[in-house]
Write a structure and sequence with these properties.
With 472 residues, the protein is an all-alpha fold. The protein has one domain (3-459). Helices cover 85% and strands 0% of the residues. It is built from 18 helices and no strands. It has helices at residues 3-13, 18-44, 48-65, 69-84, 88-115, 117-123, 131-143, 145-160, 165-187, 197-220, 237-271, 273-309, 313-340, 342-349, 353-385, 389-414, 419-446, 448-471. Helix 4 packs parallel to helix 8 (145-160) and helix 9 (165-187) runs antiparallel to helix 10 (197-220). The longest helix is centred in the middle third of the chain and has 37 residues, at 273-309. It is globular and about 60 Å long. The termini are far apart. It is found in: Cell membrane.
């Protein structure tokens, strides 16, 4: 048997341990955070205005990429479930189809973004002083959005097989290359021209293209025998329906969240350049607070989907709670570290007194925000893993737009609380969705499939105890 087949057989038989799944994702995100922080620091050397442009543009691009969650998210969960149930051939077909569909949609989206930067800048309410800068960044990075989408699709498929290390290595390399190219293009180092924000956009596209080459090589060898090109033109309608069934609620949920963040960013942009720069810096700092929690949430989704496919329902049920408890402790510790070292951290980015004071104040609100985020992330991803994404979507659509956006508008714009009002809306939204997901997860224990699993396992344990007692 080939080496790839041996590894794949092991994947079918063994459920990946949560730590084995988590640490590569965590390392990848930590390095992305550190390199992203360095990226923001270098952009700040151009101006606070450049930071604001990159911040609002990236929020917009995140919303666009969510379009691909329909494919990537649904495919990832199904790959784990199929491997858990021993259906490796179906897992392979799902992975190939997800990449092919991403490529088709990505081409159209990239063309649209490359040719419509003026329109999108107006929709995002970019301040007039920043519009000229935003056109260049939006058109170049938007035109290359297919690279980001394909990287997302390929790495999601590979992670879902239980191999979280390989995407980590590629991501590390991509971010290091991005930072080096940023340094070269911003400051004119190594004989390169000094291109400023234009150079940052070019750096982003180049680093994503290089990463794509490595991601494809990994993906090609992730399912045993190497995948060949002709497989990408073969579609299985039944499996495609399964992808859509699981993926469309994930897509709607993700799109709703990211678009709501764009709307919130637009509210902040309407407040002026200083609040927009402060919110962008806060985004960078907040990433440190929740990145380990998000890593755990992604890992537990893979693990629970695998356990669910293997019909190990009781183990799947309690995995969510273990991750939740540990995750809350971690995000609280990380937020406290940010508060403790708040002054030296923020002064590294900017010397504007208003921005510094605002960011420091918002860090205290993050102490309330992050546990709610963890509650929502851990249990939301767990529900997605067992195919209950529709419930997560329905609660998210309601809460995000009524509480996060609606309340933020009333408090932040209507009552003129500014960024404080935005954060109050965000905090209440995270806890509302998290609590609803918590009760939904508990409800699954009493459903027939879970109840039967619990009764059978409990009966087996009782039988063993009685046998041991009789022997004694």
């Amino acid at each position: 048997m080939a080496k790839g087949n041996v590894q794949h057989e092991k994947l079918r038989q063994e459920t990946p341990a949560i730590w084995a799944l988590t640490w590569p994702i965590m390392v990848e995100m930590m390095l992305q955070f550190m390199l992203g922080t360095a990226d923001t620091l270098m952009v700040s050397r151009i101006s606070d205005d450049a930071v604001a442009v990159v911040g609002i543009a990236n929020q917009f691009f995140n919303a666009v990429v969510i379009l691909f969650t329909l494919i990537c998210g649904g495919a990832g969960i199904l790959i784990s479930q199929k491997l858990g149930s021993g259906r490796a051939a179906d897992a392979r077909k799902i992975g190939v189809m997800s990449v092919a569909l991403t490529a088709i949609i990505g081409i159209g989206v990239s063309v649209l973004l490359a040719t419509s930067s003026h329109t999108f800048a107006s929709i995002l309410q970019v301040p007039d002083d920043l519009k000229e800068m935003s056109y260049t960044y939006l058109s170049i990075v938007g035109g290359g959005i297919i690279l980001l989408a394909l990287n997302l699709s390929l790495s999601s498929a590979v992670r879902s097989t239980g191999d979280t290390r390989s995407p980590m290595y590629v991501s590390i390399g991509m971010n290091i290359l991005h930072i080096v190219l940023n340094y070269a293009f911003i400051f004119g180092a190594f004989g390169f021209p000094q291109w400023g924000l234009f150079g940052i956009a070019i750096s982003t596209v180049i680093s994503r293209f290089v990463a794509l080459l490595f991601q494809y090589w990994m993906f090609r060898n992730a399912f045993g025998t190497p995948i060949v090109l002709r497989e990408f033109v073969s579609f299985n309608r039944k499996l495609l329906k399964e992808i859509v069934k699981i993926g469309w609620p994930l897509s709607m949920n993700g799109a709703s969240w990211t678009i709501s963040q764009v709307v919130l960013f637009s509210m902040v942009a309407s407040m002026g350049q200083l609040p927009l720069a402060a919110r962008t810096y806060m985004n960078t700092m907040e990433s440190f607070a929740f990145l380990f929690g998000w890593s755990l949430a992604l890992a537990v989704q893979i693990q629970i989907a695998h356990l669910y496919g293997a019909n190990k329902l009781k183990e799947a049920y309690y995995s969510a709670y273990r991750v939740l408890g540990f995750g809350i402790l971690i995000v609280l510790a990380n937020t406290l570290l940010l508060i403790l070292f708040r002054s030296p951290i923020i002064t590294t980015f900017t010397d504007d007194e208003w921005i510094i004071e605002m960011v420091v104040a918002l860090l205290w609100l993050n102490l309330a925000l992050q546990p709610g985020k963890m509650l929502n992330m851990a249990l939301g991803q767990s529900l997605n893993a067992i195919g209950d994404g529709r419930y997560v979507m329905m609660t998210a659509l309601t809460s995000m737009w009524i509480i996060a956006v609606g309340l933020a508008f009333v408090l932040g714009i209507g009552l003129e609380w500014g960024l404080y009002g935005i954060y109050v809306g965000m905090i209440l939204d995270e806890y509302t969705r998290g609590i609803l997901c918590f009760f939904r997860w508990r409800k699954h224990r009493s459903k027939l499939a879970f109840a039967e699993a619990f009764r059978s396992e409990d009966a087996a344990l009782k039988k063993n105890e009685n046998a041991n007692g009789a022997a004694f």
